[in-house]
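Reviewer comment 2.1 asked that we show a complete input and output for one of the modelled complexes. We chose the copper (II) ion case, as it is the one discussed in the main text.
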Amino acid sequence: MKNWILVSAAITLAACGGTDGQPDTEAPSNTLTTPSETLQTQSMQTEGLMTQTFAIINTAGVEIGDVTVADQAAGGVLLNLDVTAIPQGTHAIHFHTNGTCDLPNFSSAEGHYDPMAVNHGFDSTAPNPHAGDMRNFDAPVSGVVQTQVLNERVSLSDREGFAPLFDADNTALIIHASADDYVSQPTGAAGGRIACAVIAP
Ligand SMILES: [Cu+2]
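Response of the prediction step:
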């Protein structure tokens, strides 16, 4: 009995599709799938914010934690930093240009991610800061750091108006030995590079 109802419904839809000149075989499926496809598209746009976690290594190549990068609805990304063995003190953290963490000094990541070619630092002369610039964080005696860092200028999902972290050569997250003074060009006098994460899809 159920089969009969389904078959008869299909025949009815096919007949409807044929009346406006469209092929009988395509019209019914279009009619049935269009509403759900529309809903899925809207859902993807609403939930288009990406979140991804990346491993962080030290200069010996040992994994010391990770960073979860999450697109924010208002724009930019929020970093959830979860690392160990960071020397006590204040440390600079930036996105750098190349998505590589070659040992032993991560110089392969090159300079700060700066697609707009502006000045480094929040306290420097405008236009500033680099897309990859972020506020320093503090490490306690234990070396265990669980903190959040905001970057209002970049995106994971290539959103218009925000520098894409996943560009042609991707990017790298670098933690430095010292604090960023937010003024010195082009690095903030942040010292050596002590940890690195490849930021790539
Ligand atoms: Cu840096």
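The helical segments are 2-19, 27-46. We note this here for comparison with the apo prediction described in Section 3.2.
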